[in-house]
Amino acid sequence: MDEPAKSPPNAPILEARHISKRFGSTLALQEVSLQVYPGETLAIIGENGAGKSTLMKIISGLLEPDSGELLIQGKACWLRSVTAAQKLGIALIPQERSLCDNLSVAENMFLGRELKIALVVRRIREMETQCAYWLSQIGLAETLSPQTLVSQLSQGYQQMVEIARALSQQAKILIMDEPTSSLSQRETDRLHALIRDLNQQGTAILYISHRMRDVQEIARRVVALRDGRLAGELTGSNIEVERMAALMSGQNRHAASAVSLPSTEPSSVCLSMKNLRLKDRVTGSLQLTVNRGEIVALAGLVGAGRSRLARALFGLEPVEEGSIQLMGKTVLLRSPQSAIRAGIALVPEDRQSQGLFLGMSIQENLAMSQWASLSRSGWVLWSKVRAMAQNTIDQFRIKAQNGAQPVEALSGGNQQKVVLAKWLRWEPRLLILDEPTRGVDVGSKQEIYQRAREAASRGMGVLMISSEMQELLSVPDRVIVMNQGRITGELARESLSEAAIMRLMEA
Amino acid sequence: MKKNLGVLGLLLLVVVVTSLLDSKFLQSPNPSNIARWTGMFGILSVGQSFVIMTGGIDLSVGSVVGLTGCLLPMFTREMGIPVGIALLLIAGICAALGAFHGILITKLRLQPFVVTLCGLFIYRGVSRYLTGDMTQGFGDGFRELRLLANGTTWGLPNPFLIMILVLIASSLALNFTVYGRHVLAVGRSEQAARYSGIAADRTLIMTYMLSTLMAGLAGVLFALDLNSIQPSGHGNFFELYAIAGAVLGGCSLRGGVGSVMGAIIGTALVRVLYNAINILGIPTQLEFAFVGGVILVGVAGEEILKRLAGRFKKPAAS
Question: What is the ipTM of this complex?
């Protein structure tokens, strides 16, 4: 930490050369090269699935690349594990806090490498002294005591402790994954001040973020990834929201807009929500309408409260006050069962743990949302289940031989089609899609958009949560933007633009 | 059925080896006795296997067997309640106990292990208190009722036949009713079940009720068969035999997988082992060690077979 960087100032401290990584049939990274210089903050931006996190996992030793090499201070390195990367001075501060709640700051800082006498007795005093030193290095000597329990700290302070821990491990390169996603403005400012400080001391920061404003404020160089490739680089005054958005989404917009079927004229109101407040006391008073025949997108950053709203509409999140009307009738949504009875379907955010029963067959997964037409007084009519499954497989072009196949054998895109079909097969009135194309290949994406549009044209209301700019710009008829539990604005199709959405996302 | 071949093979192996070592094994009334006990324990393991398939466990069933064993003679002999009504009362009590477990597990979010462990203690204590620790029985009376447990029909012990009925009904319930699919779905992933609109709480409560009802049925048969019920000891360890049977039969304690047929074959294996230990003159002190060893061999063998089979099939896509 204290010795000055020995390499000349212009030599990169970290260099990635032609890194490629494949998962199954998808190329997550393709020939990605980048340099990181000591004392700089390099921001990495890109949409979900662009390959940011894969790249960071490779740099921090969590994943090994299929090809390409990593050079640290000019030397080629083989990062077998996180520990190996740590020894070379690379530390990852993950998006979710990873401290042990029940231990003190000092205990967390030395977790796994406790100072000991004769292998058993912990030198707690010494650890606390050293901990205090590292806390003073990031300017927290006064505010934080090494003895404080981590559970008593806010998210922001917990993150600071993680940074201090990384520094105490002689980290030269800090990778921060969405560091501000759960921070308040004050905490963000404090973090940014600390980052500038660390830069001065020669520490390089890799800053991954969806928040364009934060990136603009802290980074002097920005690298954008798109579909696993390097999409471009911006430096200095060129770092503007519009330019970044353009790099992230690319120019070829026709890929997604091909599905824009003639959007039907909104006929009547499908969902109308007035002054909805949730019991969590975070989400503000929400108001929105979705018309029949219309696809409305909900945009916002992670943590804006969109999924929470979707869960509330599906009876999974308790509602404090306000009213929900479906087709003009007030509905009480106490449980998913009551939501389904009212005609509401939710394709959840997490396909693997919420959407599907892995290990069960395709036909059982399809049937599980509603047995009404597939059973008689509690008895399963397997012939009807099989026929329904075969029908759905054909109709949704799911790549499977038959419905008895286990659902986990399908690719991500086909699994998502199963989840979508599970709900669409009984024609709900309102279809809520929470990030319906996350981790889905381009072909399946198109089909999912197509299905949503067709459903709308049959008179369904579709509410789609999406974080993908390209999707937001091309699929919906209207975009409603949320930030920190509030609805910050609404954009009609004519006034849709990346910049407009981003402004509202951070409003 | 295919997934039960391993246990079935092990069962046949033990039967063949034991009968070769000692011909008494196949002589009357030994096979009939094994069948009778397999019947009663099998009913227990059917209920248990449903609970295990939801990802839970029911440790209370042994004490429920003890409780019903005490209640039936008390109701009929001491209090003079007509048999039919006594049986209905017992069924009602068992269903209520199961519902109580289920409600604590779903509404209070307590862990099944803890809830049913407390049940194990409580019902044992209640049995001992109600009877004053006095041995219960029917004496010379109720001979006709007792035929339900110690009589035979078409040469087969009645409890075995009752078990067959339970097996058929529960197999149908598991494979051909919506409830059965919900049991497996909740066991696979309770979260996905909730997101699919499955009434997970109701499914769980019903399953714990099923388990205690089965325990009550088995408990009645045990009481009628033994005619001498020690409130402090009757039914001890029975929950563990039920779990062993279910696990041997392919139920995963993680939930979501299992078969009723398997649980019964597993139970039969445990019963045959006990019998073999007796017949072959293996020191009874070794009983538990022997049974535990064979169960371990069965479960480990199953796993090894599965891996070998996986290697010969197409390499699984990761």
Answer: 0.84
